[in-house]
Design a protein that fits this description.
By secondary structure, the protein is an alpha/beta fold. The chain is built from ten helices and ten strands. Helix content is 37%, strand content 26%. The chain binds adenosine-5'-triphosphate and magnesium ion.
Length: 233
């Protein structure tokens, strides 16, 4: 198993954001985590990356417990989160943002940066511009490009389609399928339930921090509990 979470609990003072959450991702899978605002999706991803410390539970990556390891260490092992709201460095150029993605590496990342520019021609054209001038879609591409430079095995994406036009949402999901085709495993948190169910192999559904449904996306897409709560039917 590539990633396992065992009975993970995330608390902020009295708020229990994630309770007793267990899940797994096999190599080569696209897995989605769905749930309403405040369900605990971001908290779960942050605990998996190690940017918040879980109150309880265990995170296992590539067969080893990483619960006591820092976020940076986990990135070095190939566990990489593209955070909600992208969090690119707006006062740096596009190129320098990409360089930041490679900061933990000792080798020269320039060839891989060129490969990112080939994948995202819009970024290539704007390589010397400040990231603050990028459109929402371009910022999302930059955030993903930066994450790719840390050579992930498992990429976790927190609401990557937020704020994108329908055309860009299509392009983003095509990119996710392309990255998966190239060998990346993916954990996707999405508000766009339809697209997430169409793209992922399996899904976990959270409600108020608790796992309420899990299964293959094919099964869940026709599950009446899903339909009522998340598909608006
Ligand atoms: N830093 C924090 N301090 C206190 N409470 C927090 C903090 N971060 C999140 N919470 C609370 O934890 C719960 C889960 O939040 P979280 O951001 O994980 O949900 P989410 O499913 O990602 O929601 P959204 O879909 O709106 O992004 C919410 O009740 C939220 O208010
Ligand atoms: Mg969130």
């Amino acid at each position: 198993m590539l990633l396992e979470a065992h009975a993970l609990q995330v608390s902020y003072g009295p708020t229990q954001a994630v309770q007793e959450m267990s899940m797994h991702i096999a190599e080569g899978e696209i897995v989605t985590v769905l749930g309403a605002n405040g369900a605990g999706k971001t908290s779960l991803l942050k605990a998996l990356q190690g940017v918040v410390k879980p109150a309880r539970g265990d995170v296992v990556f590539k067969g080893k417990s990483v619960t006591r390891q820092s976020a940076a260490w986990r990135v070095g092992q190939g566990l990489v989160l593209v955070p909600e709201g992208r969090q690119i460095f707006v006062s740096l150029t596009v190129h320098d943002n990409l360089l930041m993605g490679a900061y933990t590496r000792r080798d020269n990342p320039e060839r891989e940066i060129e490969a990112i520019y080939e994948r995202f021609p819009n970024l290539a054209k704007r390589r010397d511009m400040l990231a603050s001038v990028l459109s929402g879609g371009e910022q999302q591409m930059l955030a993903i490009g930066r994450a790719l430079l840390s050579r992930p095995t498992l990429m976790m994406l927190d609401e990557p389609s937020l704020g994108l036009s329908p055309l860009l949402v299509q392009a983003l999901f095509k990119l996710i399928r392309d990255l998966h085709h190239d060998g990346l495993s993916i954990l996707l948190v999405e508000q766009n339930t339809h697209m997430a169910l169409a793209t992922a192999h399996r899904a976990y559904v959270l409600e108020l921090g608790r796992l309420v449904l899990e299964g293959s996306t094919r099964e869940l897409a026709s599950d009446p509990r899903m339909a009522a709560a998340y598909l608006g039917t």
